[in-house]
Amino acid sequence: MSSPLLDVWDAASASPYNPSVGKGVQFTLGFALLFTSLVLSTIFGLNRSFVTLSVLGIPASLAFGFGAVYMICAVGVYV
Length: 79
Description:
Elements: H1 4-13, H2 26-46, H3 50-74
Helix pairs in contact: 2-3
């Protein structure tokens, strides 16, 4: 007797998961994103305006968010 879950398990074993960013690159990418966010947020802090919010502030916050997650994963703490 075959169960649907067992069929899904067997079908998934034929195509393993390959991440888009490998384990060896996560530290470098995380460090680069965190450094970029530091530079962008420093420039944004020096001259705040509505225009620089969309040009510098939002990319800085996105770079910090993704960089923090990549650094956490690179050192072995999985979220």
